[in-house]
Amino acid sequence: GQNIDQPTEMTATEGAIVQINCTYQTSGFNGLFWYQQHAGEAPTFLSYNVLDGLEEKGRFSSFLSRSKGYSYLLLKELQMKDSASYLCAAMDSNYQLIWGAGTKLIIKP
Amino acid sequence: IAGITQAPTSQILAAGRRMTLRCTQDMRHNAMYWYRQDLGLGLRLIHYSNTAGTTGKGEVPDGYSVSRANTDDFPLTLASAVPSQTSVYFCASSDSKGQGTDTQYFGPGTRLTVL
Question: Whose C-alpha in A4, A17, A39, A106 is 20 to 30 A from the C-alpha of A79?
Fold first, then answer.
């Protein structure tokens, strides 16, 4: 079957660094997406990885290991506005997204 | 209009009633999607459309129907609502070329409560 696993909730301190992990099992693989979702709002696109390695985009970076079925999202210099849920989604062989339940990130001052 | 709009924003509906959730995009994206989001679960695909005139079933299609008469609009209909359809519904679109870079963009969502 197809499955995405990520932690339910994480807590971090303002100004610190946090890593949100995601493991996936899909029928075929066409890339890994990360989305941010603030409470009561729509998901918004953060990053896409299809090749192994690290993609850096400002304070946010995303890593992929296809052989391990593993990705992480790294958030640096945390700000209070980063408090949100972070959704991991893998694209299967039919180009459909399989979504994780999301990781709620709580930032404390 | 900029991006994707959904209507209504929220709705309380009696069980057994028919309801249509509206979705319109102005990005000329060929692909559109309907998801439901429930607490503790990932987004689940209800129906999708790769291009105007075609539709397909997702992971949880039962009790829902869609149509895609043109590029911009993708309404979702609940023929006879049941309490288990209480959820937040998101419409999304992508400029899909059948490639992995097909990023999906989401509307603001409709919060539906079926009593």
Answer: A4
